[in-house]
Design brief:
Layout lengths: L3 H35 L7 E7 L2 E7 L5 H8 L18 E4 L2 E4 L12 E3 L1 H4 L7 H8 L9 H16 L18 H7 L10 H11 L5
Helix pairs in contact: 4-7
Length: 213
């Protein structure tokens, strides 16, 4: 007659052996799955050609790189500032193809072949753009963090007025817009100065516009 205890031991041994085999098979698969999650494959870089401040630039970028990060991190043009990084403060304003844009809201790959002008491209300390000189003369800044965006925006803004592009404050869309105080404030409303130097900024832009406001 078979010993009952021997049968019980054999059954337990079978269960232990089976569990060990399953674990040995499953653990490498689980480790591989975790490795796959931990190390996702990166997309290949994109080649982007820009003309920045008159200089041809060839970059290889992650397609998700903003124009602001391409300028600051890859071309080391740190004049354009990262303020809110949400397109609400205007500190990152640059001129692309003659139009002012928030460089934090647009991807660099979207500007293939575009001409980009940053604050560094407008003038130098020894040879300033008239708008830069006017900001200095009128003390149009305090901490200065928003100033590059303010200047780039105001230069492009005056060109918009000259080109006859209306704003939300333009009273008569059938007539060329005039740079009234309301027009100037509306057109510069996308550039925030947290120090509150607005009155001096207004004076600086007005001086370059010929004092017509």
């Amino acid at each position: 007659m078979q010993d009952p205890d021997a049968t019980e031991i054999s059954r337990r041994g079978f269960i232990v052996l089976g569990s060990s085999t399953v674990a040995a098979t499953a653990l490498p698969q689980a480790a591989q799955a975790q490795k796959a999650v931990a190390e996702p494959s990166l997309p290949p870089p994109w080649k982007v050609s820009l003309k920045v401040n008159g200089k041809a630039c060839e970059l290889e970028l992650d397609a998700r790189t903003t124009l602001l990060d391409a300028l600051r991190e890859h071309l080391h043009l740190t004049g354009s500032k990262k303020g809110c990084d949400q397109g609400q403060c205007g500190a990152c304003t640059v001129i692309a193809g003659g139009r002012r844009i928030n460089s934090c809201l647009t991807l660099a790959v979207m500007h293939q072949g575009d001409e980009i002008t940053t604050i560094e491209g407008l003038g130098t300390p020894d040879d300033m753009h008239p708008m830069q000189s006017s900001f200095v003369k009128c003390d149009g800044y305090q901490c200065g963090y928003c100033t590059p965006g303010q200047i780039c925006s105001s230069v492009a803004m005056l060109d918009e007025v000259k080109a006859g592009i209306p704003s939300h404050a333009t009273a008569d869309l059938m007539e060329p817009p005039k740079l009234t105080p309301e027009e100037l404030r509306e057109r510069m409303s996308g550039n925030i100065c947290r120090c509150g130097a607005y009155s001096n900024i207004f004076d600086a832009i007005n001086e370059v516009a010929g004092g017509t406001v």
